[in-house]
Amino acid sequence: MDHHPTNWGRPRDDRVDPYGTFPIHARPRPKEDAFGDAVKHTQQPIVTGSSVIGLKYKDGVMLAADNLASYGSLARYKDVQRLHPVGTSTILGAGGDMSDFQYIQHTLDSLIIEEFTYDDGNKLGPTEIYQYLSRIMYNRRSKMNPLWNSLVVGGIKSDGESFLGYVDLLGTTYQSPTIATGFGSYIAQPLLRNAVDEHPEPLTEEEALSIIQKCMKTLFYRDARSLNKYQVAKVTAEGVTISDPIEAPTVWGFAEGIRGYGAQTQ
Amino acid sequence: MTSIGTGYDLSASTYSPDGRIFQVEYANKAVENSGTAIGLRVKDGVVLAVEKIIHSKLLMPESNKRILTIDKHIGYTSSGLLADGRQLANRARDESQSSRDFYREPPTLKTIVNRLSLFIQAYTLYSSVRPFGCTSLLASVDKHGPGLYVIEPSGISLGHHGAAVGKGRQLAKTELEKLKLNELSMRQAVYEAARIIHLVHDDAKEKDFELEMSWIGAETNNIHLPVPKDLFEDADKQARDALLEDMED
C-alpha cells in the first residue's frame, strides 16, 4: 500500500490520470510491472554441456570441448559445437546451459557486426571480448538472473601475446596459462598444469595437442556427462581454426572385470 | 519553377492541383547537385563507387567516408545531403540488427530496403518534417544472390543492374548501359566503375574529388569491404590514363 501523502485519495494507477494534473513532479509512481514480483529467474540449467579445457602454447592458445549436450543425465544431443569463434582472434568455449550459450553467441556476433560496420580499422581482441563477457555475466548474476555458463575465452591480443581467461555464471574471472571448467577442473587441470607449469619451454603445437587429447580421453573415462567426440580449436597469429570432431582411442577390456559392468560372476 | 509562390510547395503534406508533392521534388534537387554515386551489379557481386567532392584542402584524405557498411553483407552509399545519408545508414543498421535478433539469420537486402523505404516514405507525409534529401544505393549478396537497390526521397525503391545518382548520373547511366553487366567479373566492374566516375567528373565546375570504391561478392567471401589498395590504385590509374588519352584524341 502506498502511504505517501501526495497519493492520498488518488487512484493507484497513474494511467487513470494521464494528464499529470498533480502539482508535485516527483510524486511516487506505482511499480511499472504489477506482476514484477512473480517473475521467476533461471534456477537451474536444463540442457547442459560439460567441461571446457584450454592452454597456452608456443604459437597461441588451444581449447577443447566435447560435442555433447546432456538433458539431465541423458546424453541428449551428440553433435553440439561448444566452441565459438568471435571475430578473427578470439575463441569462446562454453559449458553449462546451452540455450544461454546460444544467447551469448548471438550477443557477441551482434557486437562483432556492430564493430565491423564502424569500419574504423579497430578490431575487438580477446581482452575486449573477455571484459565484455565478464560484465554481462556479473550484471546478470547481480539481477539474480544469471546466464548459467562457465566460459573460457582464448585468443591472441593485438600485441601478439596469447590470452586465456575464465568467467562463469557468478561473474568470477581469472586468467591462467591453463584452464579447465566443470568436472575438468578436477580431472584435467592437474594434467594440464603438470604439462605446462613444469615445462621450461613453451609447448609446441604437437605437445599441446597431445596433452589436450590426454585430458579429453581421461575426462571421457571419468566424467559421466562427457562424450568421446570432441573438437579442438586453436588461435594463432594466422587466425582461428576449429577442428572437425575427433575421437580418442579408448580401451575398455578392463571393464569386464568390474562388478556391475561386465558379465555377472556372483 | 512553376511551383514557387503558389503555396503548394510549403509542406510535404500538401499536393499541388496536378497531384505533385513539391517538397519531395525539391529533395530530389538536393540529390541532383551532389557528387555522383554509382553501383554495378555483376554476375558474382556488386561494386559501389562514389565521387567524393573535396571542398577544402584542410580535410584529411580518406576522411568523411561516403560508402558505409550496414551489415557484414550490406553496403550503403548515398548521394545528396551527407548527414541525411548517415541517418538513414544508422536506421538501416538498426533494422538489420533487429531482423537478426528476430530471425537469427542475416537479413536479405530486400528486407532492409523495404523497411528503409517505409521509413523514408513516412517523411513525405507530414508538414512537420522534411523529406530526406538523399538517394540511397544499397548493395548486397544474400541468399538470393547479388542485389542492388536505389531508394529515392519519395520512398520508392527499385532493384537495378546498374545505377547512377547525383550530378553525373546522365552520362554515367549511358556508360552503364553500354556494359554487359551480367557478364562482367567483380574485378572488371571495379575498373569500369573507376573509369565512369573519372569520366563523369567535371573538372571545370568542381574542385578536387576523391574516388571511393567498395565491393561485395565472390572475391570478398560475400562481405562488404573497401576495394583493396593495390586493385584500387591500378583501377584509379587506368581510369586517369584513359581520360588523358581521350583528351589527346
From TrEMBL, chain A:
<keyword id="KW-0963">Cytoplasm</keyword>
<dbReference type="InterPro" id="IPR001353">
    <property type="entry name" value="Proteasome_sua/b"/>
</dbReference>
<dbReference type="InterPro" id="IPR029055">
    <property type="entry name" value="Ntn_hydrolases_N"/>
</dbReference>
<dbReference type="GO" id="GO:0005634">
    <property type="term" value="C:nucleus"/>
</dbReference>
<dbReference type="GO" id="GO:0051603">
    <property type="term" value="P:proteolysis involved in protein catabolic process"/>
</dbReference>
<dbReference type="Pfam" id="PF00227">
    <property type="entry name" value="Proteasome"/>
</dbReference>
<keyword id="KW-0539">Nucleus</keyword>
<dbReference type="InterPro" id="IPR016050">
    <property type="entry name" value="Proteasome_bsu_CS"/>
</dbReference>
<dbReference type="InterPro" id="IPR016295">
    <property type="entry name" value="Proteasome_beta4"/>
</dbReference>
<dbReference type="GO" id="GO:0019774">
    <property type="term" value="C:proteasome core complex, beta-subunit complex"/>
</dbReference>
<comment type="similarity">
    <text>Belongs to the peptidase T1B family.</text>
</comment>
<keyword id="KW-0647">Proteasome</keyword>
<feature type="region of interest" description="Disordered">
    <location>
        <begin position="1"/>
        <end position="36"/>
    </location>
</feature>
<comment type="function">
    <text>Non-catalytic component of the proteasome.</text>
</comment>
<protein>
    <recommendedName>
        <fullName>Proteasome subunit beta</fullName>
    </recommendedName>
</protein>
<feature type="compositionally biased region" description="Basic and acidic residues">
    <location>
        <begin position="1"/>
        <end position="17"/>
    </location>
</feature>
<dbReference type="InterPro" id="IPR023333">
    <property type="entry name" value="Proteasome_suB-type"/>
</dbReference>
<dbReference type="GO" id="GO:0005737">
    <property type="term" value="C:cytoplasm"/>
</dbReference>
UniProtKB/TrEMBL annotation, chain B:
<comment type="function">
    <text>The proteasome is a multicatalytic proteinase complex which is characterized by its ability to cleave peptides with Arg, Phe, Tyr, Leu, and Glu adjacent to the leaving group at neutral or slightly basic pH. The proteasome has an ATP-dependent proteolytic activity.</text>
</comment>
<keyword id="KW-0539">Nucleus</keyword>
<feature type="domain" description="Proteasome alpha-type subunits">
    <location>
        <begin position="8"/>
        <end position="30"/>
    </location>
</feature>
<dbReference type="InterPro" id="IPR023332">
    <property type="entry name" value="Proteasome_alpha-type"/>
</dbReference>
<dbReference type="GO" id="GO:0005737">
    <property type="term" value="C:cytoplasm"/>
</dbReference>
<dbReference type="InterPro" id="IPR001353">
    <property type="entry name" value="Proteasome_sua/b"/>
</dbReference>
<protein>
    <recommendedName>
        <fullName>Proteasome subunit alpha type</fullName>
    </recommendedName>
</protein>
<keyword id="KW-0963">Cytoplasm</keyword>
<dbReference type="GO" id="GO:0006511">
    <property type="term" value="P:ubiquitin-dependent protein catabolic process"/>
</dbReference>
<dbReference type="InterPro" id="IPR029055">
    <property type="entry name" value="Ntn_hydrolases_N"/>
</dbReference>
<dbReference type="InterPro" id="IPR050115">
    <property type="entry name" value="Proteasome_alpha"/>
</dbReference>
<dbReference type="InterPro" id="IPR000426">
    <property type="entry name" value="Proteasome_asu_N"/>
</dbReference>
<comment type="similarity">
    <text>Belongs to the peptidase T1A family.</text>
</comment>
<dbReference type="GO" id="GO:0005634">
    <property type="term" value="C:nucleus"/>
</dbReference>
<comment type="subunit">
    <text>The 26S proteasome consists of a 20S proteasome core and two 19S regulatory subunits.</text>
</comment>
<dbReference type="GO" id="GO:0019773">
    <property type="term" value="C:proteasome core complex, alpha-subunit complex"/>
</dbReference>
<dbReference type="Pfam" id="PF10584">
    <property type="entry name" value="Proteasome_A_N"/>
</dbReference>
<dbReference type="Pfam" id="PF00227">
    <property type="entry name" value="Proteasome"/>
</dbReference>
<keyword id="KW-0647">Proteasome</keyword>
